Amino acid sequence: MRADDVILFAQVAELGSFKLAADRLGLANSVVSKRIQRLEQDLEVQLLHRTTRKLSLTEAGVSLLPTAKQMAQLRQDVTESVTQLSSVIKGTLRVSVPTISGDLLLAEAIAEFASLHDELRIDVKLSNRFVDLIDEGFDLAIRTGYLEDSSLIARHIIDSQWLVCAAPSYIAKFGKPSSPESLEYHNCLHYTYQSTGEGDWEFFIPGTEDKRIVKVNGNFSTNNAAALRKAAIAGHGIVYVPKCLVYHDLQAGILMDIFPHQVAKKLGIYAIYPFTRHPSPKLRALIAHIRDRYLAMAHYF
């Protein structure tokens, strides 16, 4: 069994095509096909189901894939360990970031990194849509939540704590909720762009680390976090948002944290990239820069 064949299998499995893998590696399609056949013969198992329309993994292929990914990563790490010291950070990086992160710290941090390297250009797209990094040509995405796509590599940056808050004018008019359950009697404004249901707010069960969902209702919902923040500041209702979105408002007393230490929702912020596009020195440096900037402002999160 040849290690290069195992790594090639990982690339074919990610791209779902012999031709795409061949184009990526500068090989003939027939060469890629023969090397995968050779690997299957060496292992005495079938790794891929081949049809005229697509490839899919067999049970053996699914079992081999994690190891194949690790081998691909190890080979890249070995190569970079002897070349990265002399590498010049230059070229282009395409980055996708969510709107909250982009509007707050992230866009500034990326622009700062670009200004430090005269030969580097960074193209940042702000969108809450989960882009397809490979098909759309992105080198990196910053995402908040849970990683479900096994063809991607995630590097944890920081955790983002959520909270429940409202303007003093709302509290003065309608009273402060005495418990999460009492939110049923309040106007709760919904952020529709979140992993759980927009009306499902997560809290700790008192005295435990167990969690429960409280169902809430309200007369306003939006997928735009900035619009939700403005509605809350204007006193129109209670919101459930990431702390970083309203940090300065809390410090200024414009918004009030209603249930300190009771909100259970905390999501990881990750740097995501395809596993076959192992991070170049410039991408590694950008991820490290973003992480350093976030950690320096950890109190925001």
From TrEMBL:
Keyword tRNA processing: no
Residues in HTH lysR-type domain copies: 1-58
Keywords: DNA-binding, Transcription, Transcription regulation
Domain of life from the UniProt record: Bacteria
Family label: Belongs to the LysR transcriptional regulatory family.
Protein name: LysR family transcriptional regulator
Source organism: Enterovibrio gelatinilyticus
